[in-house]
Amino acid sequence: MASTADISRGMIIKLDGSLYTVVEFGENKTARAAAKVWAKLKGVDNARSIEKTWNSGDTLYPVRVERKAYQYLYKDDTGYNFMDNETFEQIAVQEALVDAPQFLKEGAEVSVLVNTETDLPMSVELPDKIVVLVTYSEPGVKGDTATRTLKPATIETGATVNVPLFVNEGELIRINTKTGEYVERVK
Question: Mean of the per-residue pLDDT values for the chain?
Answer without folding.
Answer: 89
